C-alpha cells in the first residue's frame, strides 16, 4: 500500500536532483563555451585595465607539494566592493596552451554550478569573494613557453546591482608566489 507512493516520491526526488545537476552542468558548459569563444575569436573583450567602479580584482598563483604530488593553485579575488553585488558569478580560464602543460582535461573553473551565488557589499557580512582551483603540475611538461603563459588568466564576472545585470571580461596577469617562480624556472632550466 505504501510502496507505490514511496516509489513515486523517490522517483520524483531523483528526477529533481538529476534535473538540477543537468541545469548546473548546462550552465557551466554555456559559461565555458562563452569563454573559449571569446578567447579564440574576440580576445579584445578581455580588458587588461582592471580598474572598475564596483570592485577590485586580483589573482594569485601558488605552489603546493604534498606527499610528492605537485600542484599549481590559481585564485582570483573580488574585493573592496563599492556597491552591493548580488548573484556574483565568477569564472576563469587559463591560457589555452596551458592545457598541454598541466595534468588536467580542462583549464576552466566557475562558480555557476553553485545553487547559492555569493553577494558581497561594502559593509555587508561578506566583503569579498574568491574562486580557486588546484591543477596537477607535471614537471616534465614545464618549458620556456610555460614560463611565458602561466600567469595569464581570462576572467568573466557577472553580477547584479539593483537588479541591473553587469558582465565584465578581464585578462589578468596573476601574481605568482616566489616559491612557484623558483620551482618553474628551475624545472624549465633542468629540462632544457
TrEMBL record:
This is Lipoprotein. It comes from Paenibacillus tundrae.
